[in-house]
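[Meeting: bench + compute handoff]

Bench side (C.D.) handed over the final construct sequence. Compute side (W.E.) agreed to return the predicted structure before the next meeting so the bench team could plan truncations. Sequence as handed over:
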Amino acid sequence: METPGSQSSLHRANLERVVRAVRMAGSLTQAEIARSTGLSAATVSNIVRELKDGGTVEVTPTSAGGRRARSVSLSADAGIVLGVDFGHTHLRVAVGNLAHQVLAEESEPLDVDASYADGFGRAETLVERLITTTGIDRTKIVGAGLGVPGPIDVESGTLGSTAILPGWSGINPSEELAARLGVPVYVDNDANLGALGEMVWGSGRGVRDLAYIKVASGVGAGLVIDGTIYRGPGGTAGEIGHITLDEAGPVCRCGNRGCLETFTAARYVLPLLQPSHGTELTMERVVQLAREGDPGCRRVVADVGRHVGSGVANLCNLLNPSRVVLGGDLAEAGELVLAPIRESVSRYAIPSAARRLSVLPGALGGRAEVLGALALVLSEMGDSTLLESALPASTPAFT
C-alpha cells in the first residue's frame, strides 16, 4: 500500500505530472517537460523511458534550438476523445486521439433553437457515423466534450439563460449526451471552447493569458488566465456581450439596453444592410462583400470592430491579457475589423495594457469550438486510467 511521502507515491505523482504535461501540450521535448514539471532531466528521462515501455507515450527524434532532441507525445492508441459543438445554425462533431491528432470531422446545418431532442439525436447519429468511418475501437473512447451556445450553471450543469436557448430550458446537456453515448461528457459554452481550441491548436499557442472573442448570433469571450479557462463561480465569466455601451440604446435580449451585443451581433447588424443588400444576407456574406470592397459592408464591419474594441479595452483594464483572438465569421474580415479593434483598444485601454496586447484572427475558423471540445476532454480527464492500463501494478521507485 502506498503511503503519503513514500517513494512509491512520489514516483506515482511524478508519473502523473509528466503524463499531464504531455497530455495538455500534445507534444513536448524532454527538456520542456523538465521545465514545465520542475523535475530533473534525469528523472524525466527515466519516466519517459518507463512510459514508452508501457505504451503510454511515443518518442520521436526532433530538434530544438538547432540541437537534436526527443519529442514526447501520448501514444496514438492510448485513447480516443469525441467533440460535439452545437451552434445556433450548425452541428459539428470531431474524433481525435490523446496525441492531439484529429482523426475525422463532420458538420451539418441545424436549428439548435427548435428542439433539444432533435439536436442530441442528430449529434448521436453523427458521432456513430464517424466512429464507423474511422473504425476506432469504442472501448478506447475516454470521453466527449460538448459545446453549447450559452452559459452553463456550474452547480446544476444546466444552461444558465433560457433567453438564449428557450427550447433547452431545464435540460442538463452533459447528462443528456452521456446517456446517449455511454461515455463521460464534459460541457462548456462555445466561447470557452473556442479559447481552448485556439490555445491548443491555433492563434493562442504559446501564451497563458488570452481572451477569445466570438461574434456571431451573440457575443461572448472565453478567458484563459495562467493557462486555465476562467469560468467564475457561477459559470458566466466572459459575457462581454452584455457590457453596456449606451444606456439609451436598443433593448437587448438580456433585458438591458445598449449592450455590446446590440451593436455587434448578427441579429442587430444585418438589418442595417438589408434595405440595400436584401433579406437573405448573412454575416459571412457581409464579410465577403467587405473584402471585395463593398462600401456599406466595409463600414458596418469597421463599426462592429470599433464596438468590439471597446469591450476588449475593458478586458485589458481588468485582466491585462497578452493576446486577444477574434473568432466567428467576423474574423475572416482580417484587418478590416482588426484595425478598428486595435484603434479602440489604444483609445480606451490603459496604455501599459494596450502596448502589451496583440490582437489576432483565429487560426481555426469555424473549427475552433469543436476542437476546443476535444481539448476540454484532454484537460478534464484524469491520468490514472492511462497509467493503470499501461504500467504494471508495482513500478520501481526513483526520483
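W.E. noted at the follow-up: The first helix runs from residue 7 to 25. C.D. will use this when planning the next construct.
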